[in-house]
Amino acid sequence: MPGMDKTGPLGTGPIGRGMGPCGGGQVARGRGRGFRRGGGAGWGVVSATLSPDEEKGIIEQQKGWLETQLAAITQRLHELDKNKDSE
Questions:
Q1: Number of domains in the chain
Q2: Alpha helices in the chain (DSSP H)
Q3: What's the whole-model pTM score?
Q4: pLDDT digits (tens, 9 = 90+) for 10-20
């Protein structure tokens, strides 16, 4: 993780499994994108092993990450439209 400041490589927050020095060397329970039994990709949150507060915290992190991704996509689309208009 660049700068070891827990912002991640894109400044969007921590990513990965939390096994490195920034994650405290602990695998985070029940989170991380992956494939779940039954098929399909998903976040893989196992709510049966999390308290409601833990689950809420994870979901809020996911929401923030998704909002950041959407903002980056929106900005890029805007840039592409601007370049198209100037051609």
A1: 1
A2: 52-86
A3: 0.44
A4: 666 766 666 66
